[in-house]
Structure of Germin-like protein:
Amino acid sequence: MIRLFFLFFFLIFSCEASVQDFCVADFTAPEGPAGYSCKNPANVTVDDFVFSGLGKAGNTTNLIKAAVTPAFAAQFPGLNGLGISIARLDLAPGGVVPMHTHPGATELLVVVQGSIATAFISSANTVYLKTLKKGDIMVYPQGLLHFQINAGGIPAIAFVSFSSPNPGLQITDFAFFANNLPSILVEKTTFLDAAQVKKLKAVLGGTG
């Protein structure tokens, strides 16, 4: 009985000793499908677990009048492997984050200034639309199309968290019109005419 008791505690302590508290990203090593390699713990400092980039507004002087400041594993190495990340969203009046998806994560958005009209579309093509005000939170299930639009006359600010340190991003408009996919194929798959496709490619930088 005593032997079993000591064996039990030996197994517990052996398991605890093998627990890895964190995997701070090693940017000198290649990134793989599972994320970055782990930095040598001897080289880890408290600064790896602190990010100070979300206190400043992003530059919204662009086509969509919006800016996203990410704190993903690539910017915040302490997040690597922890299944979480965050970003700041700035929307100038008239600003929009076009229809997009995050293939690798569910998103949670909290509005801290202004108001934001937003929706996601389910795989059954049901639209879940709401205008959010300061303090409101909305969740977007992983992989579903969604958007955000400034719904007021003042700059809107939100913070968005993700269930991955690398949530991924694909903006639908850019996927169709900002690459070199032949225009004839874009016309066939979107039901747009040649003039519309040409116009959108010119705006977004596509060719073909």
